[in-house]
Design goal:
Blueprint: H1 9-27, H2 30-34, H3 39-67, H4 76-84, H5 89-92, H6 96-99, E1 103-108, E2 124-130, E3 136-144, H7 149-171
Antiparallel strand pairs: 1-2, 2-3
Helix pairs in contact: 1-3
Length: 172
């Protein structure tokens, strides 16, 4: 949970702003609506609460970036999408080029594959499609995508290094 931005505060901000907008709409006079007593103080209070939420969100995202440094290559919006959909690897596959700069996307196992899904009901990463050309790098063995997203992203990175090592060893 983000400090200073509890679930109780955020909906309160939304409700307060909507109430102010409804009151302004009901007034039908912009001059009167903007000169209501205490309006500036309410707006300043809301602005302070939003600043606290933004700071808490930035601190939270920085913590996640410290856990998995490749998140520094992603925008805040992309990182929020990755973290919120971390339990659904197919949804975060669109962010693969931003996290693994040389990769275009991951090939995930399906339920019909011999590999199937993990104990947590998630697919395995079978291969990585390169961002340039048509190169496909198979993971040896396929990578289970279990746990938190930053943990299995690190597992993918380690598997990527190992698969490249195995390919290089075979070529020598």
């Amino acid at each position: 949970e983000l400090q200073g931005c509890s679930p109780v505060v955020t909906p309160g901000i939304d409700v307060d702003v909507k109430d102010m907008l409804r009151a302004a709409w009901a007034t039908k006079n912009i001059k009167e609506a903007c000169n209501l007593d205490g309006l500036i103080q309410k707006l300043e209070g809301i602005s302070e609460q939003l600043d606290m939420c933004k700071k808490s969100l930035a601190d939270f995202l920085d913590g996640r970036r410290r856990q998995f440094p490749r998140y520094y290559f992603t925008s805040e919006a992309d990182l929020l999408d990755i973290l919120s959909n971390g339990s659904q690897p197919a949804k975060i596959n669109i962010h693969t080029p931003k996290v693994f700069l040389m990769g275009k996307s991951l090939i995930l196992s399906s339920e019909d594959d011999a590999i199937g899904y993990s104990d947590e009901g998630r697919p395995h990463a079978v291969s990585l499609i390169a961002g340039v050309g048509k190169e496909v790098l198979d993971f040896e063995p396929p990578v289970p995508l279990n746990g938190k997203v930053e943990i299995y992203m690190q597992t993918i990175l380690d598997a990527l290094k190992y698969a490249l090592f195995c390919n290089l060893k075979r070529s020598l």
